[in-house]
């Protein structure tokens, strides 16, 4: 497998911009030749020892990579798909040794659990859900929420997993009668779940009872809002949103992320902060990921930009590498690394500091 | 804009909304 991984450049690849820097620590090369779609890092347990593993997804192949030393990763397992292509990996926190993937063409048609056993006789993948799936998110406490169906027969379902990947419990949430675009957990509140809808509402559910607690109308100026992070403080709900359809304005430049505060009791809400590109940078939000108080986005220009949400400004810009645009970016859930992917399957791992 | 524009705030909003919302 060593030929699948190129040498490591031990040098900063990007000059510090307003206090942040990225250092390339490792590179994974995809030999399959098919289009790369996603990457994720998860914990894996073997003989009582937990270590991070990287999952890479191409259109028809999902691969599991094991760390051989701090900078070298070796591919140890692959799952192949023949009919429906992979759309995304669905990370589920608190779950070890199980990979969840969403498959489909433009929309999700299936969610599958991928298992890795040494015994080839065992089934290596299980169909978890199929149908017209609009949104999916892995939640803490070994849960996964998904919405499916049309507005007339919409289902919002939470599945809790057993250790073997089987379904331990199922719970249905009250549907909002609007197409759900994304879900988000409320940090520190295990029973609260948020959704964003095509009608520009933020919905709040009680995960324990299934109640739809509130629909909160947010600013109409942005469509197709994605919720990346939410937390509750002093009775108010703060949400970090991105706006793939946001247009550049003269006053604030190009907004990529936005922090909104809402009062769940009154549904009144307002913008707190717009996270825009530095002057002279063009591009809209294409894809992104938020972890703690850092937000990373791939822009339509092919550049990756990172914001410190507390400082309020962009800290690093990572232009396309080897004349190839970036196509996705993820924070590692296990450390302060950034995983940046290109369509041809190359995954670059950077240390962010 | 200020915090006052958001109306009366409750620290227990989640519990209160859960008790008010239909089951």
Notes on the protein architecture:
- The complex is a heterodimer of chains A (353) and B (23).
- Chain A is mostly beta strands.
- Chain A is built from no helices and 28 strands.
- Chain A has an eight-stranded mixed β-sheet with strand order 17-16-15-14-18-19-20-21, with no helix packed on it.
- The model of chain A is unreliable at 1-16 (pLDDT under 50).
- Chain B is built from one helix and no strands.
- The N and C termini of chain B lie far apart (35 Å).
- The chains are: A mainly beta (353), B mainly alpha (23).
- The interface between A and B is medium-sized, with 24 and 18 residues.
Number of strand elements of chain B = 0
Query: Percent of residues of chain A in beta strands?
Result: over 45%
* Measured distance between first and last alpha carbons of chain A: 30 Å
What is the first-to-last residue Cα distance of chain B?
A: 35 Å
- So how many helices of chain A? 0
> Roughly how many Å is the radius of gyration of chain A?
20 Å
How are the SSEs placed, and which strands pair?
The complex is a heterodimer of chains A (353) and B (23).
Chain A lengths: L11 E6 L2 E9 L7 E11 L2 E10 L2 E9 L2 E9 L5 E4 L8 E7 L3 E8 L9 E15 L3 E6 L6 E7 L5 E7 L6 E8 L1 E9 L3 E6 L5 E6 L8 E8 L2 E7 L12 E8 L6 E8 L8 E7 L2 E6 L4 E5 L4 E6 L9 E4 L5 E5 L5 E6 L1
Chain B lengths: L12 H8 L3
Structure characteristics:
heterodimer, A: mainly beta, 59% strand, globular, disordered N terminus, B: mainly alpha, 35% helix, elongated
Brief overview:
With 353 residues, chain A is an all-beta fold. Chain A has strands at 12-17, 20-28, 36-46, 49-58, 61-69, 72-80, 86-89, 98-104, 108-115, 125-139, 143-148, 155-161, 167-173, 180-187, 189-197, 201-206, 212-217, 226-233, 236-242, 255-262, 269-276, 285-291, 294-299, 304-308, 313-318, 328-331, 337-341, 347-352.
């Amino acid at each position: 497998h060593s030929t699948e991984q190129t040498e490591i450049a031990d040098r900063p690849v990007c000059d510090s911009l307003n206090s942040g820097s990225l250092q390339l620590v490792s590179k994974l090369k995809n030999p399959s030749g098919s289009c790369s779609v996603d990457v994720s890092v998860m914990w894996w347990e073997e003989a009582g020892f937990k270590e991070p593993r990287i999952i890479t997804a191409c259109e028809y192949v999902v691969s599991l990579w094991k760390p051989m030393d701090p900078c070298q990763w070796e591919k140890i397992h692959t799952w192949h798909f023949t009919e429906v292509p992979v759309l995304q990996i669905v990370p589920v926190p608190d779950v070890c040794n199980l990979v969840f993937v969403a498959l489909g063409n433009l929309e999700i048609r299936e969610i599958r659990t991928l298992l890795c056993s040494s015994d080839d006789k065992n089934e290596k993948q299980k169909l978890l859900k199929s149908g017209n799936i609009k949104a999916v998110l892995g939640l803490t406490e070994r849960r996964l929420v998904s919405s499916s169906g049309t507005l007339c027969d919409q289902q919002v379902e939470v599945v809790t997993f057993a250790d073997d990947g089987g379904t331990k419990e199922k719970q249905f949430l009250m549907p909002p009668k609007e197409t759900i675009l994304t879900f988000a957990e409320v940090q520190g509140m295990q029973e609260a779940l948020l959704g964003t809808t095509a009608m520009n509402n933020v919905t709040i559910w009680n995960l324990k009872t299934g109640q739809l607690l509130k629909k909160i109308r947010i600013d109409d100026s942005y469509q197709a809002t994605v919720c990346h992070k939410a937390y509750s403080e002093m009775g108010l709900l703060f949400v970090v949103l991105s706006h793939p359809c946001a247009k550049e304005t003269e006053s604030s430049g190009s907004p990529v992320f936005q922090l909104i505060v809402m009062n769940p009791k009154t549904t009144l809400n307002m913008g707190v902060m717009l996270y825009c590109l530095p002057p002279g940078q063009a591009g809209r939000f294409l894809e992104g990921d938020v972890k703690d108080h850092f937000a990373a986005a791939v822009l339509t220009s092919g550049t990756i930009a990172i914001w410190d949400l507390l400082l309020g400004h962009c800290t690093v810009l990572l232009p396309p590498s080897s004349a190839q645009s970036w196509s996705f970016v993820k924070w590692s859930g296990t450390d302060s690394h950034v995983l940046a992917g290109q369509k041809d399957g190359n995954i670059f791992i950077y240390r962010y500091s | 804009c200020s915090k006052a524009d958001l109306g009366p705030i409750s620290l227990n909003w989640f519990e209160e909304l859960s008790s008010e919302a239909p089951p």
